[in-house]
Specification:
single chain; alpha+beta; 5 helices; DNA-binding
Length: 192
DNA sequence: TGAATGATGCGCT
DNA sequence: GCGCATCATTCAT
């Protein structure tokens, strides 16, 4: 039994959403077929007081989606070559988002493997850049409504997850916040 | 097995 | 120009 997550799920404290979204399934109706994957790793970026958050220096044209309503996608390009997918959380006017760092492919491996043929099934979504590359997500998918049919998350019954909390990865400021959450038992978590 | 580096777009100082 | 919420490859131990 599965059901699509509604906007009220995202419209809460970001750290609560982070832990609740682990073990849920992200579904993408791509042009070449449906893909779904189990979310196993996320990081939280919260508010203008978080130095690692893109919103730390106020609203710009790049990050304005984070200031908007919860339940939308925020996708940006990093290092000139990799896209990263975030879920916007919290109420309108409060900038916060969850970075999707890793997932386990469930359906649509044959679609995903075309985008990255060298990768094994268990590691093909192990990293934010890899995830977007495999799913075929780019900044063109920025601002999608996650309560619509193209890109959304659904919950499944009986998904118990052992959650580990740790320091965020790849940032130089704001490391004192332990805002990375991942599934202890997953082989797909990034960084080994 | 680990550290260093190159690729490369774009928003900000 | 600089510096990034990265990854794959190369070079050194």
């Amino acid at each position: 039994m599965s059901k699509k997550i509604l906007r009220s799920f995202y419209n809460r404290d970001t750290l609560e959403v982070a832990q609740d979204i682990l073990g849920k399934y992200i579904v993408y109706n791509s042009p070449s077929g449906e893909i779904s994957a189990r979310i196993v790793e996320v990081e939280a970026y919260i508010g203008e007081n978080d130095p690692a958050c893109h919103a730390a220096r106020g609203m710009t044209s790049r990050n304005e989606i984070m200031f908007g309503q919860a339940g939308f996608s925020y996708i940006y390009l990093i290092y000139g070559m990799y896209n990263c997918l975030n879920f916007v959380t919290e109420k309108k006017g409060f900038p916060a988002a969850l970075l999707l760092r890793a997932a386990e492919i469930v359906d649509g491996f044959e679609v995903v493997v075309k985008n990255n043929p060298q990768k094994s099934k268990s590691r093909i979504l192990s990293g934010p850049g890899l995830f977007c590359k495999a799913f075929g997500l780019t900044k063109e998918h920025n601002g999608l409504d996650l309560t619509q049919e193209i890109l959304y998350v659904e919950s499944h019954d009986n998904n118990k997850v052992e959650i580990i909390q740790s320091e965020r990865i790849g940032i130089s400021n704001g490391k004192e916040h332990l805002w990375r959450f991942y599934d202890k038992n997953s082989q797909a978590v990034s960084q080994k």
